[in-house]
Amino acid sequence: MRKSWDLYFMDIAYMASTRATCRRRHVGAVLCKNKKLLGSSYNGAPMGVADCYEEGCMLVQNYEEENGQLVKKTRCIRTIHAEQNLLLFTDRENREGATVYVTDEPCWTCANLLANSGIGEIVYHRPYRKDHTKVQQLLEQKGIIFRGLEDYHPPQGTDDSQVID
Fold first, then answer.
1. Closest Cα partner for 20 from 40, 41, 44, 39?
2. Do 96 and 24 meet the contact criterion of CB atoms below 8 Å apart?
3. Which of 35, 63, 120, 127 is such that its CA lies 20 to 30 A from the CA of 97?
4. Any idea where the CMP/dCMP-type deaminase domain is (predicted)?
5. Nearest 5°: CA angle at 15, between 28 and 32?
6. Where are the beta strands (DSSP E) in the chain?
C-alpha cells in the first residue's frame, strides 16, 4: 500500500533532518507544490563555519513564564533553523501557494518568516508548545493552513526528539 503524500513528504523532511549539525535537535523541512518536491533543508551552522559537533553548542539562557512561574530555558543560537534555510535556498515564485513539511512545529521567528514567504500551508510533526498559540493565531490571520500530523511515525533512525542540555 502506498503512503499518503503527507506521510511521504514528512518522511523526506525527517531524512533531511539527519544532515543537521546541531547536537541538541535535528530538524528537517521540505517545500512541495503540486505533489512535487522543490527543496529540502535542515538546521545547522552557516556554510564554512564550525558547527555544534565541531565547536559545541552556542547556548544562551533566558527565563520565561510558564504557569505563573519563571522557568530557565536554554537554547542553541549557533544554528540557522531548517525553515530559515529552506527560505534561503528556494525561490519566492516556487513558494507561492506551496506546502512546507517540517519535522518540528515552527518557532515564532520561523513562523513570521514563513508567513511572509508566499507559502499556503505548514504541516509539522513534533509540537513546540511554547509558541503554539501565537503561531497559530498569526498563520490563521494570514490564511495559511497549519496542521500537525499526530499519528505519524518517522522512519526508523531519524527521530531524535531528545533535547540535550
1. 44
2. no
3. 127
4. 4-146
5. 65
6. 28-33, 36-42, 59-66, 69-76, 99-104, 121-126, 145-148
Sheet with 145-148: list strands edge to edge. 36-42, 28-33, 99-104, 121-126, 145-148
- Residue 144 CB contacts under 8 Å (≥ 6 apart), including other chains: 114, 115, 119, 120, 121, 122
> Residue 76 in 3-state DSSP?
strand
Active-site option among 54, 64, 83, 121: 83
- Cβ atoms 101, 13 nearer than 8 A: yes
Amino acid present at 25: R
Q: Return the closest-CA partner of residue 160 out of 9, 28, 5.
A: 28
In the residue annotation, 83 being an active-site residue is answered as yes
Rounded to two decimals, the pTM is: 0.91
DSSP 8-state assignment for residue 49: S
